[in-house]
Amino acid sequence: MIHLFPKIRNRMLLISVCYIVLIGVYMTLNPAVNALFLLLLTMIGLAVIMLSHYMNAANDNSRLLARLYNQLDVEGFLREYEPKLKLTVKNPNVALSVRLHISNAYCALGRFDDAIALLEAFVPVPSRKKENDLLARFVVVSNLCYCAEQKEDLESAKRHLDELLALKAQLEALQKAKPEKKRMVFNTELNEQCYAYLTTGKVDVELLKRLVQQNTQQLHKITISLWIARAYLADNNRREAVKLLEKIARLAPELYPSKTAAKLLATLQ
Asked: Secondary structure of 3-41 in the HEC alphabet?
């Protein structure tokens, strides 16, 4: 994570070097000092320096993600986060998470083609564990499927959904060998419901409402709520649809879900 924040990383390296130099100077001035004690002191000091800077990086990352998902400042988030695509990040999970968050920001602005291009350009680094490779592909395909559904590209959405369900089956098969408490859950409900709406006009509204309630991120709440409003309209439940669309349109007028909600309200009026 710290590689996403070069200033914090460089400051950590500088302080670490200065600390080692000070220990060396102290050892030179006090040759009788216990070497084992100095070695222990050096290791503890470096550990404290590294831990504090890694925590600073994690906190900065959380602050930026909150800007996207809860404060709904998508443009501000992209200004700070997009440059991280150019950084060399050794951890493949961190590299993938950067693309996922930025693709979510693109989707929030209605830039679905940009989100798809970003996700499709990701080249995963094969790991020693098959499960890790499947997990990485699962989250990428999940986002690709949702982008296709947002674009109402039924052919692509069906292709991605089929792959997503196949990946889910493989991952769930691997989970059976683990203790029950350590098993992971792979949720494809949202993608399945969105595809169902696009092909039949019907969704499980109560299921989508539950997804909204369970979600802690405002951006995802309004995005899912837009699908609920569409379902209300498909069921000729104009009253509930208008109430929900008005709420979505007010929350973030500059974002795609709110703009779409406003357009639907205009057609109703």
From this structure: HHCHHHHHHHHHHHHHHHHHHHHHHHHCCCCCHHHHHHH
